[in-house]
Amino acid sequence: MQQIAVKIIIRVLIVLLILTAAALVVFSVVMARYLSFPKGMTLEGEKQWAISNGVWGDLEDYKTESYTVEGKDGYILHCQLLYSDDTQDSDKYVIISHGYNSNRYGAGKYVPVYDALGYKCVIYDLRGHGENEKSVCTIGNYESQDLLKIIDDAYSRFGSDIYLGLHGESMGSSTSLSTLGAKPNVRFVVADCGFTNLYELIGTGFRSRGIGFLEPCVDAAMRVVYGWSMKDTSAIDAIDGNTIPVCFIHGTADTFITPDNSERLKEKTSGYSELHIVDHAEHAQSRAVLGKKAYTELVGEFLDKVNELEK
After folding, report:
1. What pLDDT does 1 receive?
2. Helix (H, G, I), strand (E, B), or coil: what is residue 247?
3. What is the pLDDT of residues 130-166, one digit of tens each?
4. Average pLDDT, stretch 236-250?
5. Could you give the CA distance from residue 36 to residue 228 in angstroms, rounded to a whole number?
6. Would you say 259 and 277 are in contact if contact means Cβ atoms under 8 Å apart?
7. Residues 195, 174: contact at Cβ < 8 Å?
8. Based on the structure, what is the number of domains in the chain?
9. Quick count: other Cβ atoms within 10 Å of Cβ 37?
10. Are residues 72 and 220 in the same domain?
């Protein structure tokens, strides 16, 4: 009788082990897919959000030119050039990268800022977002390679002697900073609420929920099923030794990507940099909290400093 009981217990444990392993695999694959394929907002949805939150402004009054660029591995990226009567003859350009689950209209709130500073603006849908075809999104790695193609296209399309900078929010910040490892021909980067390393960021979220031990499993599933690793999305590695001026902006109330991310990124870069911490701003809300005038002044003072350093 005792031997029978032992056998039953062993079988139950084996079944439980198999079920646990199966649940772990399913969770890892589902989470890997969730991260790799953002649902994203539609252009109209992003527009309505921006209007309701008071950051759309007069975006529809700008002149626009739509075009596409072939990114990494020929992936087609939808882009728009925006400019006003005041900037139509300007040779200064900025490429603005939006955040995860957003689209180029999410980058639109920064257009009036740069227009006031004399820049034409290029906004675009990052990989897997907006009007682009469905694709694996690596939240900054493949996207930085796409951005390098957009930078090259800007010089071909608008002129080899243009003055070009980058601006990114959240994932767009990681994307912009990650290009710096390739030493692109850009004059500055404004990095709003960026993160250091994706694996570290996701791990922090997992650990806060008591499931930090699952992250390696999710990353393994991501590598096997979707061909990329969170560890490869690492702005902090890309900016090691960077000499291009960077302006870091972060909100004190950002609990998703905490301000210490920007602090650590600033410590890592070798060139001129600034860090501006915005009181009471939650994630990606510094522009809204400061308002157009104050945000423009912040960026403008940084760009003035960059110009002084170039003289």
Report:
1. 62
2. strand
3. 999 999 999 999 999 999 999 999 999 999 999 999 9
4. 97
5. 9
6. yes
7. yes
8. 2
9. 14
10. no
Amino acid at 138: T
**Do 20 and 111 have their domain in common?**
no
Whether residue 18 is found in the same domain as residue 118 = no
Q: Rounded to an integer, what distance in angstroms lies between the CA atom of residue 222 and that of residue 167?
A: 28
| Domain range enclosing 82 | 42-197+233-310
Task: Please tell me the predicted confidence (pLDDT) of residue 29.
Answer: 92
Q: Do 185 and 279 fall within a single domain?
A: yes
Do 136 and 226 touch, CB atoms closer than 8 A? yes
Contact 219/227 with Cβ under 8 angstroms? no
Q: What is the pLDDT of residue 55?
A: 86
**Per-residue DSSP letter, 227:** S
Burial of residue 89, with CB atoms counted within 10 A of its CB: 0-12 exposed, 13-18 middle, 19 or more buried: exposed
Closest CA to 155 of 186, 179, 113: 186
Rounded to a whole number of angstroms, the distance between the first and last alpha carbons of the chain is 90
The residue type of 130 is G
Q: How much of the chain, in percent, has pLDDT values that exceed 90?
A: 83
> Amino acid identity of 257?
I
Strand order across the beta sheet in which 63-70 lies: 63-70, 76-83, 120-124, 92-97, 163-169, 189-192, 246-251, 273-278
Q: Do residues 261 and 196 touch, judged by C-beta distance below 8 A?
A: yes
Q: Which whole-number Å values give the CA distances from 104 to 66, 81, 166, 282, in the listed order?
A: 12, 11, 14, 21
Residues 30 and 169 in one domain: no
Q: Please give the residue that has the higher pLDDT: either 23 or 192.
A: 192
* CATH number of the domain residue 94 falls in: 3.40.50.1820
Q: Are residues 132 and 212 in the same domain?
A: no
- Summarised one tens digit per residue, pLDDT across range 52-64 is 888 888 888 999 9
Give the per-residue pLDDT at 17: 75
Q: Is the pLDDT of residue 308 over 90?
A: yes
Q: Which two tokens stand for residue 99?
A: 């955040």
